[in-house]
Amino acid sequence: MVPFGGWDMPLSYEAGTLHEHRTCRSSAVVFDVSHLGTLRVEGSAAFDRLQAAFTNDLRRIEVGRAQYTHLLDDDGSVLDDIIVWWVEAERFDVMPNASNTRRVAEALGADPDCRSDDVTSSRAVLAVQGPQARARLGTLCAAAAAVPRFGVATVTWEPGLDVVVAGTGYTGEDGVEIAVPAAAAPSVWRALLGVGIEPAGLGARDTLRLEAGLPLHGHELGPGITPLQAGLAWVVRWDKGDFRGRAALEAERAAGPQRLLHGLLLEGRRPARAGCEVRVGGTTVGEVTSGNFSPMLERAIALAFLPPALSVGDAVEVVVRGDAISGQVAGLPFVGR
């Protein structure tokens, strides 16, 4: 168990991170991701409130769908990346990162026609991920297993127990996330393990998302980092109207970002870590934001912000504890589904 975002989180279980990672890629695992926040935004003004706060356009989805979006600061940098579950016509479950729930609640503000309640402590969230996730989940609850990618549905897990299921996740694999009333979470967890879905911890969650090329707030997103720099321009819908940080982001779009997020494949197994220098021809051109050993590729991989002129295949060196390790710029994801 390790501290993470104000929570005690399981780093790994008995089988260890490498086993958990490979099981997610080959079979099915379940993560306890209850540290994610849930802000329940309800009321006649809920849609407009979210539409004005975030970068993506809710008009592109409908009730029963989920959407990835950003909350920006005035300078265009990403205060948080968020999943919005559109549960009912006037109910949205907004899912911030662990430490950002209060910040997102403050950004939404107060409105007599829009209530925003932090319900994080009243539920657990269990993420079932992997190529066999739906088949094994379906033996317990067929309706939960049938929720499509980026779909959202309230389903009956068993008589007297309703759960909210979204076809989302953070591994690059298929699967769902299940919001369960907190009191029922232990029994649901045990049921999932009972059909051969193995437990996985924070360590595997990080190596899986890195192989999938997915950003982590505080590393690839955060102060000074914009969606354009992070390769997430698709999250910004310019035709939706105004949103916080729009003016700064428009200026960056016009000038062109001065750095872009890239993948790096390194020689050998020795991982680079956040902050390691990236060099080209002996000149420092950027730094690693996340790095680790890839259990599937069996070599070191990393993400880094680099000059826009660099492209896939270009040679680089990464300085790891004083040693220059050869590598090359790589396309993302490192490992596909």
Please provide a brief summary of the model:
The chain has 337 residues and is of the alpha+beta class.
Identify low-pLDDT runs.
none
| CATH class value of the domain at 39-109 and 226-256 | Alpha Beta
Q: From the 3D structure, determine the CATH topology of the domain at 39-109 and 226-256.
A: Alpha-Beta Plaits
Count of runs of 4 or more consecutive helical residues:
8
| CATH level-4 homologous superfamily of the domain at 39-109 and 226-256 | Aminomethyltransferase beta-barrel domains
The end-to-end distance, rounded to whole angstroms, is 29 Å
N-to-C SSE string, H for helix and E for strand:
EEHEEHEEEHEEHHEEEHEHHEEEEEE
How many strand units? 19
Strand content: 25-35%
Plain-language structure description:
The structure is a single chain. The chain is of the alpha+beta class and 337 residues long. The protein has a domain at 39-109 and 226-256: Aminomethyltransferase beta-barrel domains (Alpha-Beta Plaits), CATH 3.30.70.1400. The protein contains eight helices and 19 strands. It has a six-stranded mixed beta sheet, with helices on both faces. Strand 5 and strand 6 form a beta hairpin. Helix 1 packs across helix 7 (202-211). The two termini are 29 Å apart. The model has no long low-confidence stretch (mean pLDDT 97).
